Amino acid sequence: MTAAPSREEAWSLLREWTASDALRRHGLAVEAAVGWYAEHRFGIAGPELETWRIAGLLHDFDYERFPDTHPLQGADELRKRGYPESVVEAVLGHGDHTGMPRTTDMARTVYACDEMSGFVVAVAYVRPNRSLDEVDVRAVTKKMKDKGFARQVPRDQLTKGAEELGVPIDEHIANVVAGLKTVRHELGL
Question: Can the peptide bond before residue 101 be classed as cis, meaning omega within 30 degrees of 0?
Answer without folding.
Answer: no
